[in-house]
Amino acid sequence: MYTIGEVADILGLSTHTLRYYEKENIIFPARDASGDRRYNDSHINWLQFVIKLKETQMPIAKIKKYASLVLEGDHTTLDRLSLLEQHKHVIKQQIRTLKAADDMLEHKIAAYKDYINKRE
Questions:
Q1: Domains along the chain?
Q2: What global pTM score does this model have?
Q3: What range(s) does the HTH merR-type domain occupy (predicted)?
Q4: Are 31 and 37 in contact (CB under 8 A)?
Q5: Which pLDDT tens digits describe the chain residue by residue (120 residues)?
């Protein structure tokens, strides 16, 4: 079992973020006799997934929805699948947008280098 500080260090999050995720019903850590939060490896794995969803711009409301579907049980499997497929579509669009931006920057950088080389 891990303390909130240990989990924050492991995941590179703040304790504030972990408390926020708990407040938003995204994570449900256990509590010890003193009432302190205790996380296990399953919590860490779940939070790593949540972090990836956030990194790929999934809104917190959708992460909350996904978390609530998980808690509801197996009868929500199709809904969870649909939510993740929709997000994968968004990610693919992000990739296309980033690729186009990268191509444009490569072209602009090459033009500047060419200009500089011609001046020398």
A1: 4-119 (1.10.1660.10)
A2: 0.81
A3: 1-69
A4: yes
A5: 999 999 999 999 999 999 999 999 999 999 999 999 999 999 999 999 999 999 999 999 999 999 999 999 999 999 999 999 999 999 999 999 999 999 999 999 999 999 999 887
